[in-house]
Write a structure and sequence with these properties.
Oligomer: single chain
Number of strands: 9
Strand order of the largest sheet: 2-3-4-5-6-7
Shape: globular
Distance between the termini: 16 Å
Strand content: 25-35%
Mean pLDDT: 89
Order of helices and strands: EEEEHEHHEHEEE
Low-confidence stretches: none
Radius of gyration: 16 Å
Helix content: 10-25%
């Protein structure tokens, strides 16, 4: 669950808080390429960074990744990535993303291990130093966001 910090105010102290913007960069009306941006005030938090899968309409293409243009244009506001689980359509584009962005990646133990294995097989090597392990019941405060992690099957 993601929510505005309790008793927090948006940066800048404005009487009218900014709206929460939800911007899907992939995964809408398609299988794979899951990546959603949550933007509040000056903070951007990303949920997942998955790859898409080629089909008959994309001959010669092996991997499809989300378009990072909006994030490149707002690079200084990106606070991190939350990973929901370790399927390729949720973590598959991380090697390309982490080559460009130096932000923490928060994942549960199994998803973190799958990400580590994926990054070990990436050439050139991508650093794993920003991988942060979280567990159900943990709460993180990232910018103006408060994130509560829950267990799902």
């Amino acid at each position: 669950m993601i929510q505005k910090k309790k008793n927090g105010s948006p940066k800048g102290g404005s009487a009218n808080p900014p709206a929460l913007r939800v911007i899907p960069l992939g995964g809408m009306r398609e299988i794979g390429k899951n990546m959603t941006v949550f933007e509040y005030g000056q903070d951007i938090l990303i949920i997942d960074c998955g790859m898409g899968f080629p089909d008959d309409r994309t001959p010669g293409i092996d991997i499809i990744i989300p378009d990072f243009t909006y994030l490149r244009e707002n690079r200084d506001r990106v606070r991190g990535i939350l990973i929901t689980h370790g399927h390729e359509d949720h973590i598959g584009a991380l090697p390309w993303f982490l080559k460009e962005f130096d932000v923490p990646v928060y994942a549960t133990p199994m998803a973190k291990k799958l990400i580590e294995m994926k990054l070990d097989n990436t050439r050139p090597k991508v650093s794993k130093k920003k991988l942060q392990q979280v567990r159900a019941g943990d709460t993180l405060n990232i910018g103006d966001f408060q994130i509560d992690f829950i267990h799902v099957n």
